[in-house]
Design brief:
alpha/beta, 206 residues, five-stranded parallel beta sheet, 14% strand, Arc Repressor Mutant, subunit A, Rossmann fold
């Protein structure tokens, strides 16, 4: 019988109780193992470079280097790790910022701990994960200006107009393909188009 493949994790949070609680929960999972913990963004980056984990679970608000800056550095350096943002703040702006910067998932500290475990496994399998309630926030945030694309969406639309595939766009922008697909859904909705061909045509007309 084949052994269960163990997923290697690095956890980062500036609250010791959160780190201890999550570490203890993960220790009871046969397919998950914590290889390092960090209490700020600088230590997190050092741990990722040293241990090369499969998944990082990181707080959005950390000292010395916050989650946004750390996530930007992770992607700009091309570190091969999936990132789950764990935050107490589930507002649309925070969520959209995390996705813009290349997070693979977003989980709320207010949700049951088992939800975080499930999210870790889902992003490790290549899924884009975020709270169910966030779907409403993201949709409502886009409604006031349906044609106003974010800077990241403009970048993706330009590459779509060049005929690049999702995989090529993901590689060019240091994103996962699931993140690209997420942005494309928002772009299509904002532009009122059904597919990438129509989106490219709209871009050229602009």
């Amino acid at each position: 019988m084949a052994e269960t493949q163990v997923m290697r994790l690095v956890l980062a949070d500036d609250h010791a109780l959160v780190l201890e609680g999550l570490s203890a929960l993960i220790a009871s999972q046969p397919d998950l193992r914590v290889v390092a913990t960090a209490t700020d963004g600088e230590r997190l980056l050092a741990a990722i470079r040293r241990f090369r984990p499969d998944v990082v679970v990181m707080d959005w608000q950390m000292p010395f280097m916050d989650g946004a800056t750390c996530l930007r550095r992770i992607r700009s350096e091309g570190l091969p790790v999936r990132v789950l943002v764990l935050s107490a703040f589930g507002d649309a702006d925070t969520l959209r910022k995390a996705i813009e910067l290349g997070a693979d998932g977003f989980a709320l500290k207010t949700e049951p701990p088992q939800n975080t475990i499930a999210a870790i496994r889902q992003i490790a399998a290549g899924q884009l994960v975020f709270p169910q309630a966030a779907r409403r926030w993201l949709t409502s945030a886009a409604r006031p200006e349906p044609n106003a694309l974010t800077e990241r969406e403009e970048e993706i639309l330009a590459l779509v107009a060049e005929g690049q595939s999702n995989a090529q766009i993901a590689a060019a922008l240091n994103l996962s393909e699931n993140t690209v697909k997420f942005h494309l859904r928002n772009i299509f909705a904002k532009l009122g188009v059904a597919n990438r061909t129509e989106a490219a045509a709209r871009y050229r007309r602009r």
